[in-house]
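Reminder to self: tokens first, then the designed residues, so the page reads top to bottom the way the pipeline ran.
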């Protein structure tokens, strides 16, 4: 799927209630404009996305093999932040999009922003994709696949 094409969805009746629950990260991919797929964290990822009935969300995700080393130089610590994503705030659903209104984030430049995601729901799977964004000479969309956690 091209990063610039709209995600095909069957969301004509999707509401915020359809998101409520806990979702486990299954896949984290970059979709390039030339239709190539890149897995920047590899095939093994971990993370959870929670949507509450009160209208709040929280997401935490990283590569499965992420190592913690408190004795890293500051330059290495700064780079390591790129392999962990954490943010939370209210969410709204409209048509084929869900918007995360960021109130707290690991990334200071996300604070106060509205993170738009296109969504597609199939059974117990939820796919979220960012709008395409310029990345150097390329255009990339980030796509995350989540599985609903059930007891």
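Designed residues (151 positions):
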């Amino acid at each position: 799927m091209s990063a610039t094409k709209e995600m095909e969805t069957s969301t004509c009746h999707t509401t915020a209630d359809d998101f409520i629950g806990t979702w486990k990260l299954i896949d984290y991919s970059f979709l390039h404009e030339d239709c190539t797929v890149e897995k920047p964290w590899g095939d093994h990822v971990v993370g959870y996305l929670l949507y509450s009935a009160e209208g709040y969300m929280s997401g935490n995700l990283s590569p499965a093999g992420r190592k913690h080393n408190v004795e890293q130089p500051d330059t290495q610590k700064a780079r390591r932040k790129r392999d962990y994503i954490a943010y939370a705030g209210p969410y709204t659903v409209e048509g084929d999009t869900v918007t995360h209104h960021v109130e707290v984030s690991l990334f200071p430049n996300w604070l106060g922003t509205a993170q738009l995601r296109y969504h597609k729901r199939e059974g117990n799977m939820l796919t979220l994709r960012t709008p395409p964004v310029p990345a150097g000479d390329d255009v990339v969309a980030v796509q995350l696949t989540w599985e609903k956690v059930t007891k």
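The CA atoms of residues 22 and 150 lie 8 Å apart.
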